[in-house]
Structure formats: C-alpha cells, structure tokens
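Might you be able to check the backbone structure tokens below? Thank you kindly.
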Amino acid sequence: FYIAPAIHGPCLDISYWTSCCWHCSETPVLPAKPIIAAKYPFQVDLEAGKRYAWCACGHSKKQPFCDGSHKTAAPDISPVRFKLDEPKSVWLCGCKHTKSPPYCDGTHKEEFIQKAELPNQP
C-alpha cells in the first residue's frame, strides 16, 4: 500500500492519495526530487529584512541561492523564500535534502549524499 503527496492537477488541494488519484483520474506522480548541489553546507552572512530565495532544486549556478534554473530543470520544485528579523551568519543546506529548509541539518553527512556523484562536476 503506497501513499504519496499529490502534486498535480486539481489534486493540489488534496493532501494524500493512494494507489491512484481518485480526484482527477490521473496516474499518480511522485514528488520531484532535488539534485545534490554540494556535499557540504554554505556559511552565509544574511542581512535583516532582506528577502532571500534558497535553491531547493539543486540546479542553480548561484548556490545556495536560486537563479531561476528550476523553471526549466525542475518546474515542480520552488525555491524557499525567507527573510530574517536580524542579521545573522547561518549555514544553508547544500545537499538539498535537509529536513529543515533552508538550513543545514547535517543530512549531507549521510552515506547516500557522500557517495553520490554530483551532476554539475566532473
């Protein structure tokens, strides 16, 4: 029995569906997964009140921030937009698999990240 979040059509209003999408009668689509941009986090100094867009897809050439690459490379993934109330030095996730986006939670230390080939590097 498989349960996955719906990410297509009118099902965007439905939290979960099972073996098929009963709402729009489409074949289930698995959520898009990001590519690993880096096997380490990025330490950045952020300004208070400034809007930031953290790349969630991994395709940006301006890591860890979004450059709009998701629009063609990963249209089902959107950047995480945020701003801080006070200036702060933070560690932003580079592997794109954090459970607390946009911040690093140490997931990059896991074997599946460390053994992965990075698509944007030789």
User: Anything to note?
Assistant: The longest helix spans residues 70-73.
